[in-house]
Design a protein that fits this description.
Largest sheet: 9 strands, mixed
Radius of gyration: 21 Å
Strand content: 25-35%
Number of helices: 11
Structural class: alpha/beta
Number of strands: 20
Shape: globular
CATH superfamily of one domain: D-Amino Acid Oxidase, subunit A, domain 2
CATH architecture of one domain: 2-Layer Sandwich
């Protein structure tokens, strides 16, 4: 069967890879001239299997209230008259309830653990390189209170086969000696040795080339205007090429991997996806002193900032901003990221020549992605991964390929969208 994947970010390309390896005839439609040029382009670079906790947590509403009026706040929102934003916010508040938060964390952890296995197998099979660092992720705590909240984390992760341990401040320095330049005091940390980091753009584009070699067809510079539906059957997609010339593409089945843009596309069909963009920022600074730069990926839990070594650069990313579909880069939102880098590792990277970037994370209220059968006969979904798009990409795509092949998904404990019996 011919399957058309809509979107060529990390989720769309991994979906194409697992589908073609499952025996499907696959094509991919993407409005950009190459794969991975939107949300994937300059993300935080982490494969953070050890961090399945959703943004929607019991503490999130209070954190959001404290952020009101602060330009440098990790969490920020700009309310609008968009009904989709209000629906998402109300659903987000519901997912902050303790029982729902725990349920969502367990679901994400189950998928993340499997996705890590899939990534290892894919890397062994293809040999692709993407500036990967297989040194784990070290979560940093600035206060004893932050560290105390993490005491049950190792036990929770172990139940899903994920390794991790609490560390003292001295142990953090032993794991990443570059932290000795840190001007602030650390209370301790949490180290997940099996986590990874790397360049998601390089990964996505390298995998796209292997997809082409396996027979996947890519339609780049092709904007999807609308889905053409007859009842519950998607008959095709109306597209426009780079010159604006209209056309039509058709397949036997369609998989929506369009990130935040999937919800508006499906709304005219009466399908209301609970996916809304959470804007994030990153700063990628070239190294001045490579020997003094960290190689272990870091997560500053109190600042909601991550840092990854990507070849001859350091990337610092963070923040969550509810601001519609705006992708403009606000310097005042990038400034805290640059300051963090200068404070943590003074003289290591050139922040004056850094690349500033903003992208839209496609988030569901509970951070649990939508994977499986959409409404109707031949519509499928693989979207809503929020800040864990790369972390969950391989496991999500493998599970979707199983579902589309009529097999049970290889992950238990995850709420896949299944065809009606």
């Amino acid at each position: 069967m011919h399957v058309m994947v809509l979107g060529a970010g990390v989720t769309g390309v991994t979906t194409a890879w697992y589908l073609v390896n499952a025996g499907f005839d696959v094509s991919v439609v993407e409005r950009r001239p190459a794969a991975g040029l939107e949300t994937t382009f300059a993300n935080g670079g982490q494969i953070s299997i050890s961090h399945p906790e959703p943004w929607s947590s019991p503490s999130a509403p209070l954190e959001a209230l404290r952020a009101l009026g602060r330009a440098d706040a990790p969490l920020r929102w700009r309310l609008s008259r968009d009904p989709a934003q209000w629906r998402w916010l109300l659903a987000f508040l519901r997912e902050c309830l303790p029982q729902r938060h725990r349920r969502n964390a367990h679901a994400i952890a189950s998928l993340a653990a499997y996705s890590g296995q899939c990534l290892h197998a894919l890397r062994d099979e293809t040999g692709i390189a993407y500036e990967q660092q297989l040194r784990g992720i070290l979560h940093l705590f600035r206060t004893g209170r932050e560290q105390a909240r993490a005491h049950g984390k190792a036990e929770f992760l172990a139940a899903h086969g994920i390794r991790g341990r609490l560390c003292s401040a001295d142990e953090c320095l032993a794991i990443e000696p570059a932290l000795a330049r840190h001007r602030l005091q650390l209370a301790g940390g949490f180290y997940a040795p099996d986590d990874e980091s790397g360049n998601a753009l390089l990964f996505t584009q390298a995998l796209a080339e292997r997809c082409r070699a396996a027979g996947v067809r890519f339609y780049h510079d092709t904007t999807i205007r609308r889905l053409i539906a007859d009842g519950g059957l998607i008959e095709g997609i109306e597209v426009a090429d780079g010159t604006g010339r209209a056309g039509r593409l058709a397949a036997g089945a369609y998989v929506v991997c369009l990130g935040s843009h999937g919800a508006p596309l499906l709304a005219p069909l009466g399908l209301r996806l609970p996916v809304y963009p959470l804007k994030g920022y990153s700063v990628t600074a070239p190294l001045i002193d490579a020997e003094a730069a960290p190689v272990v990926s870091l997560t500053d839990e109190s600042r909601r900032i991550v840092c990854s070594r990507l070849g001859s650069a350091l990337r610092v990313a963070g923040t969550a901003e509810l601001n519609g579909f705006d992708t403009s880069v606000a310097p005042e939102r990038c400034a805290p990221l640059s300051r963090w880098l200068a404070d943590m590792f003074p003289g290591v990277a050139d922040t004056t020549h850094a690349q500033l970037w903003a992208g839209l994370r496609p988030a569901t209220p509970g951070n649990v992605p939508l994977i499986g059968k959409g409404r109707g006969v031949n519509l499928w979904l693989n979207t809503g991964h929020g800040s864990l798009g790369w972390t969950l990409a391989c496991g999500s795509a493998s599970s979707l390929a199983a579902l589309m092949s009529g097999r049970a998904p290889p992950v238990s404990g995850f709420p896949f969208l299944r065809p009606p019996r």
